[in-house]
UniProtKB/TrEMBL annotation:
InterPro entries (alphabetical): UppP
Organism: Limosilactobacillus mucosae LM1
Enzyme nomenclature, EC number: 3.6.1.27
Subcellular locations according to the entry: Cell membrane
Note: Bacitracin is thought to be involved in the inhibition of peptidoglycan synthesis by sequestering undecaprenyl diphosphate, thereby reducing the pool of lipid carrier available.
Record-annotated membrane-spanning stretches: 12-36, 48-69, 97-119, 125-146, 167-184, 204-225, 237-258, 270-287
Protein name as it appears in the record: Undecaprenyl-diphosphatase
Membrane topology type: Multi-pass membrane protein
Protein purpose: Catalyzes the dephosphorylation of undecaprenyl diphosphate (UPP). Confers resistance to bacitracin.
Gene Ontology BP annotations: cell wall organization; peptidoglycan biosynthetic process; regulation of cell shape; response to antibiotic
Alphabetical keyword list: Antibiotic resistance, Cell membrane, Cell shape, Cell wall biogenesis/degradation, Hydrolase, Membrane, Peptidoglycan synthesis, Transmembrane, Transmembrane helix
GO cellular component, one term: plasma membrane
A Gene Ontology molecular function term of the record: undecaprenyl-diphosphatase activity
């Protein structure tokens, strides 16, 4: 029994590692999780696994919260003095951060309304290896095309504060694409949308990170409430290992990505997506 538990915890570690790495790189965490499940099966019920693969995203979310806490928490006492000092409630609430969260809320609406309403339908129709492979390839091509077309051009938007409300809506619809088609990548879809709108790579990535907080928290809470809290001891530890691994690996990956895109573009992720998508199609349509 003990040996079986260790094996399942090792599997959970791999799921958490894949989640933490692929959630923030624009290569599709959902797609990789679907593919990993084809080869590494957790010995759990179908309902638990359906909840587990979403809830371990909470570990990835907490990595963003820890790294960017000062950028996302709006409640603090301003130390500014003089004529430029904020007045009234704004002495205790950062107005710029609140505006940012309003934009993020707007970006969440398309996926929040349509994605949740038709979640079961989307899972039934598109949560399969072939759909994942096609989405990987299509958005891989999109990354390469966009980066090639924008080579040498200066970004129009160089801070989150410069993202307009109209841009926030359009980025939200790109995020909806990821909610419909696994393999698209939530971060990949929103980054592609932001780049098309003239947002710099760094700002596009950061906005994607912040946008993930309410989206992923909401999805995890929905799945957790749907499953209930009646975990067995084995299920509890599988969940904990997955969450912790996703948290630690996410911190490492986020810091790596932000350093990487200051000097490089997203083409390498586009080529990776295409190569992986072709391998998946080869395996499931020819070899399997």
């Amino acid at each position: 029994m003990f040996n079986l538990m260790i094996i399942e915890l090792i599997k959970s570690f791999f799921f958490g590692l894949v989640e933490g790495i692929t959630e923030w790189l624009p290569i599709s965490s959902t797609g990789h999780m679907i593919l990993l499940d084809q080869f590494v099966k957790l010995d759990v019920s179908k309902s638990f696994y359906s909840m587990f693969e979403v809830v371990i995203q909470l570990g990835a979310i907490m990595a963003v919260v820890v790294i960017y806490w000062k950028r996302i928490w709006p409640f603090h006492h301003s130390q500014a003095v003089g004529i430029a000092a904020p007045k009234g409630i704004w002495r205790y609430v950062d107005k710029d951060i609140m505006i940012m969260w309003l934009k993020i809320f707007i970006s969440c609406l398309p996926a929040g309304i349509i994605g949740v309403a038709f979640n079961d339908t989307f899972e039934r129709l598109f949560y399969n290896p072939v759909s994942v492979a096609i989405a990987l390839i299509v958005f891989g091509v999109a990354f390469i095309w966009i980066e090639t077309a924008h080579k040498g051009k200066k970004a129009k938007v160089n801070s989150i504060a410069e993202i307009s409300y109209n841009m926030a809506v359009m980025i939200g619809f790109f995020q909806l694409i990821a909610a419909v088609f696994p393999g698209t990548s939530r971060s990949g879809a929103t980054i592609v949308g932001a780049l098309l709108l003239g947002v710099s790579r760094t700002v596009a990535a950061e906005y994607t990170f912040f946008l993930a907080i309410p989206v992923m928290f909401g999805a995890a809470l929905f799945k957790l409430l749907k499953f209930g809290l009646a975990f067995t001891s084995m299920e509890f530890w599988i969940m904990m290992v997955g969450l912790l691994t996703a948290f630690v690996s996410s911190i490492i990956v986020i810091k790596f990505l932000m350093r990487y895109i200051k000097k490089h573009d997203f083409k390498v992720f586009g080529w990776y997506r295409i190569a992986l998508g072709l391998l998946v199609l080869l395996y499931f349509l020819v070899l399997k």
